[in-house]
């Protein structure tokens, strides 16, 4: 098995589980990046997915393909197709149909963009997006994403641990939670007049959850800048929690002593708890959470997959919930 031998004993980079041509294109791109060209044209990448025929961002967020050393950060499962990742979305500010965000999020202006970091921190400050892009080295993280609705994807994100940002603002001893406030601008977001959720879309984590190295500040996916519909220019990816915990297009990060109120909890407290850890043993009041449909596997004979405790990240995050009753603190 020459092929296997070629890989040696190293854990293969996520890029190696994408088709060979893609990997080669990525390597060429990395070489160009290393040579110092900043915002590159996306010709190679675009060619890869020419059949998709969807508009794609034309610049790279940052160096992609850098393998993460964070344990659990790279699942070897088959990646969900770029087309599915970017056309089957939940971003209610742009509509509630899965195809709405891809169609409507073109109106989102991602520059200029700032993220205010405030509350219980010794060094509160507002970061410009350009600063955030350079704050820490970008890594590729291939995470499972499990939506509370019962479907899942495998997405190669680009970003760095949220803890990199948190360390720099120095939380005070009173900081117990982190609140994430996302953009709410009627001029850019057609559905803000609707009342499906209270706007802005707000989410939160406990500080130790926010500090876990798996909690990712994402700026890109598939080695490219985040498409608007996926939460450009900056969003969270918290892989062991239901997808709605990962706010898109973040504008404010606030450290608090009290548990923040969140939009989904406000909309339906009995259905969407603050924790919302992926848990096959705690059903949503209206449906089972034991199984999931992997997007891209929905053919006639496709079987649903068993949902894993903490979405398969139990080894990395289980200890955060030691002694907690996860049925009560859903
Ligand atoms: N601001 C905002 N963030 C959001 C949402 C939203 O409607 N608005 N939807 C959430 C839900 S329910 C999911 S499953 C994920 C989907 O992310 P994706 O479209 O990039 O796969 O984003 C989450 N973040
Ligand atoms: Mo979701």
Automatic annotation (TrEMBL):
InterPro entries attached to this UniProt entry: MsrP, OxRdtase_Mopterin-bd_dom, OxRdtase_Mopterin-bd_sf, TAT_signal
EC class (word): oxidoreductase
Cofactor: binding comment: Binds 1 Mo-molybdopterin (Mo-MPT) cofactor per subunit.
Keyword tRNA processing set for record: no
Residues annotated for Mo-molybdopterin binding in this entry: 89, 92-93, 147, 182, 230, 235, 246-248
Pfam families given in the database record: Oxidored_molyb (PF00174)
E.C. designation(s): 1.8.5.-
Post-translational modification: Predicted to be exported by the Tat system. The position of the signal peptide cleavage has not been experimentally proven.
Named cofactor requirement(s): Mo-molybdopterin
GO molecular-function terms, A-Z: metal ion binding; molybdopterin cofactor binding; oxidoreductase activity, acting on a sulfur group of donors, quinone or similar compound as acceptor
Gene Ontology biological process terms in this record: protein repair
Gene3D superfamilies: Oxidoreductase, molybdopterin-binding domain
Swiss-Prot/TrEMBL keywords: Metal-binding, Molybdenum, Oxidoreductase, Signal
Reactions it catalyzes: L-methionyl-[protein] + a quinone + H2O = L-methionyl-(R)-S-oxide-[protein] + a quinol; L-methionyl-[protein] + a quinone + H2O = L-methionyl-(S)-S-oxide-[protein] + a quinol
Complexes and interactors: Heterodimer of a catalytic subunit (MsrP) and a heme-binding subunit (MsrQ).
Family to which the UniProt record says this protein belongs: Belongs to the MsrP family.
Record's function text: Part of the MsrPQ system that repairs oxidized periplasmic proteins containing methionine sulfoxide residues (Met-O), using respiratory chain electrons. Thus protects these proteins from oxidative-stress damage caused by reactive species of oxygen and chlorine generated by the host defense mechanisms. MsrPQ is essential for the maintenance of envelope integrity under bleach stress, rescuing a wide series of structurally unrelated periplasmic proteins from methionine oxidation.
Protein name: Protein-methionine-sulfoxide reductase catalytic subunit MsrP
Native organism: Piscinibacter gummiphilus
Gene that this sequence comes from: msrP
């Amino acid at each position: 098995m020459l092929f296997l031998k070629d890989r040696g004993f190293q854990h293969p980079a996520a890029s190696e589980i994408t088709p060979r041509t893609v990997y080669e294109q990525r390597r060429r791109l990395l070489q160009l990046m290393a040579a110092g060209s900043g915002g590159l044209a996306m010709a190679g990448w675009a060619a890869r997915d020419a059949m998709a025929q969807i508009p794609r961002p034309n610049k790279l967020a940052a160096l992609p393909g850098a393998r993460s050393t964070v344990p659990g950060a790279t699942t070897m499962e088959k990646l969900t197709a770029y087309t599915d990742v970017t056309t089957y979305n939940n971003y209610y500010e742009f509509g509630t149909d899965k195809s709405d965000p891809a169609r409507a999020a073109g109106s989102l202006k991602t520059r200029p963009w700032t993220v205010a970091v405030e509350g219980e921190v010794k060094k509160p400050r507002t970061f410009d997006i350009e600063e955030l892009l350079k704050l820490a080295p970008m890594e590729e993280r291939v995470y499972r994403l499990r939506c509370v609705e019962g479907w899942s994807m495998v997405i190669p994100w680009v970003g760095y641990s949220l803890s990199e940002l948190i360390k720099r603002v120095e939380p005070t001893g009173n900081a117990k939670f982190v609140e994430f406030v996302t953009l709410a601008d009627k001029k850019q977001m057609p559905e803000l007049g609707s009342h499906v959720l209270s706007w802005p879309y707000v989410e939160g984590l406990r500080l130790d959850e926010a500090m876990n190295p798996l909690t990712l500040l994402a700026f890109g996916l598939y080695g490219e800048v985040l498409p608007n519909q996926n939460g450009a220019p900056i969003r969270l990816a918290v892989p062991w929690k239901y997808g709605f915990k990962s706010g898109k297009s973040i504008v404010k990060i606030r450290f608090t002593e009290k548990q923040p109120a969140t939009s989904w909890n406000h909309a339906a407290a009995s259905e969407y708890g603050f924790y919302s850890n992926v848990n096959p043993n705690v059903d949503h009041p209206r449906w089972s959470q034991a199984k999931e449909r992997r997007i891209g596997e929905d053919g006639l004979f496709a079987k649903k997959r068993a949902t894993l405790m903490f979405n398969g990240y139990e080894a990395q995050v289980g200890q955060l919930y030691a002694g907690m009753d996860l049925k009560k603190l859903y």
